[in-house]
């Protein structure tokens, strides 16, 4: 009897949290987030390590983010962003095949929508549980938000360095420019540090930024 109550309680809690996330996603159609789960995670990590934490985060509209940066990020992180519905099965298959060939687990192949969900509601910790929750929320995001809004949210909330969140803060920190002023080359360098923002620096991303520029050119940008 006790075990049954525990199971029912856990299920009700899960359903409640899922519904709460659904409401939050619906509100994101109009409301810009003032913080995210990953931003909170970084603040807690800094407190535990007794480090100074300076957060730079300014939300700007998609129209105030250079098309160069928009295209560079899509080319780098999710080339089929406009074609899929949250999960890029083609890219996932390529990643799995590469992992099998190299006998290791490599990059995740996460889409922009998946990364947005992780940043907004979850954490940077890698686990099957996190992936499961992420996969459950992605369809809600794709159903309730437009592709432009998803991209706008993503470009504004993702981590671009220690305490640096979003395109505006990143552009100002690395290049002393507004996000609307970023050139094609600088955009590629900013996009190149997204996979490891706490370790990478734009000025060191010569090879990968060149690859991103090539991808952009092949898509007509």
Overall pLDDT confidence: 89
The count of DSSP E runs of length 2 or more, i.e. the number of strands, is 3
Q: What is the H/E order?
A: HHEHHHHHEEHHH
Q: What is the overall silhouette?
A: globular
What is the structural class? mainly alpha
Beta-strand residue fraction: under 5%
Walk me through what this model shows.
The protein has about 220 residues and is mainly alpha-helical. It has helices at about 1-25, 35-50, 65-75, 90-100, 110-120, 130-145, 145-155, 165-175, 185-190, 205-220, and strands at about 55, 160, 165. The chain has a three-stranded mixed β-sheet, with helices on one face. The radius of gyration is 18 Å and the shape is globular. The N and C termini lie far apart (about 65 Å).
Key terms for this structure?
221 residues, mainly alpha, 3-stranded mixed sheet, 10 helices, 3 strands, 60% helix, globular
Helix-strand layout with pairing:
Blueprint: H1 2-27, H2 37-48, E1 56-57, H3 67-77, H4 89-102, H5 112-121, H6 128-144, H7 147-157, E2 159-161, E3 164-165, H8 167-175, H9 184-192, H10 206-218
Parallel strand pairs: 1-3
Antiparallel strand pairs: 2-3
Helix pairs in contact: 1-6, 3-9, 3-10, 5-6, 5-7, 9-10
């Amino acid at each position: 009897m006790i075990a049954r109550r525990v199971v029912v309680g856990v299920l009700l809690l899960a359903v409640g949290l899922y519904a709460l996330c659904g409401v939050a996603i619906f509100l994101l159609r109009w409301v810009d987030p003032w913080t995210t789960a990953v931003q909170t995670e970084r603040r807690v990590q800094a407190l535990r390590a007794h480090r100074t934490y300076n957060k730079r985060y300014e939300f700007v509209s998609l129209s105030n983010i250079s098309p160069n940066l928009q295209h560079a990020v899509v080319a780098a992180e999710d080339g089929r962003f406009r074609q899929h519905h949250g999960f890029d099965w083609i890219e996932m298959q390529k990643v799995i095949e590469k992992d099998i060939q190299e006998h290791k687990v490599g990059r995740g192949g996460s889409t922009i929508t998946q990364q947005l969900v992780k940043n907004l509601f979850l954490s940077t910790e890698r686990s099957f549980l996190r992936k499961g929750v992420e996969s459950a929320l992605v369809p809600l995001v794709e159903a309730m938000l437009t592709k432009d809004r998803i991209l706008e949210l993503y470009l504004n909330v993702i981590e671009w360095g220690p305490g640096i969140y979003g395109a505006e803060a990143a552009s100002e920190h690395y290049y002393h420019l507004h996000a609307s002023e970023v050139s094609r080359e600088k955009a590629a360098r900013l996009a190149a540090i997204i996979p490891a923002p706490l370790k990478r620096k734009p000025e060191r991303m010569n090879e990968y930024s060149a690859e991103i520029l090539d991808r952009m050119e092949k898509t007509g940008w």
